[in-house]
Design a protein that fits this description.
mainly beta; 5-stranded antiparallel β-sheet; 12 strands; 38% strand
Length: 164
């Protein structure tokens, strides 16, 4: 644990470092080339050709019973997570369907529902694995299910903004 702990979306027995706790994101950062290339490819998929970008990063150490509340990173363009250690029982990354819940009238009462058989109406879960890098739009709501491992789950998370 290096740096000062901060409280963000992490809950339970987790440790969240301060932002950029190892200094500016540069080629010295572990996996920097892999991360930069993945972000560049993701931006291209969304129709943006990046010439230069700024990164903010942090680390979260998730101990047993830690989890992350549903949140988004709306001030960035792309966000991501690099899994450093993922012991069995590490929490899954869950992307949440951002559309409002459908409502319909059933007699005198409104009923809220999602069509569980329609894949467009489901949340998506990713099981973490060491070295896995997941990049996603920053506006996409996500959460991490509870870690049940006796060993800590360690991640680096990133936000990227294009530089004009």
């Amino acid at each position: 644990r290096k740096g000062v702990e901060t409280r963000r979306s992490n809950r339970g027995l987790s440790f969240h470092t301060e932002l950029n706790f190892l200094g500016p994101f540069s080629s010295d950062f572990p996996g920097a080339l892999k991360i930069a290339k993945a972000y560049q490819a993701a931006a291209l998929d969304y129709g943006f050709k990046l010439r230069e970008a700024s990164f903010t990063y942090w680390s979260i150490v998730g101990n047993k019973y830690s989890y992350s509340a549903r949140h988004e990173h709306g001030t960035a363009m792309l966000s991501g997570v690099l899994y450093v250690t993922t012991p069995e029982g590490s929490g899954n990354l869950r992307f949440c369907d951002p559309r409002p819940v459908k409502r319909m009238m059933n007699g005198e009462h409104y009923v809220s529902f999602r069509d569980k058989d329609d894949p467009r109406h489901n949340d998506v879960e990713i099981t973490p694995g060491e070295g896995l890098l997941v990049v996603f739009p920053s506006w996409l709501e996500h959460e991490v299910t509870m870690t049940m491992s006796e060993e800590p789950r360690i991640i680096y998370s990133f936000n990227m903004k294009p530089v004009s």
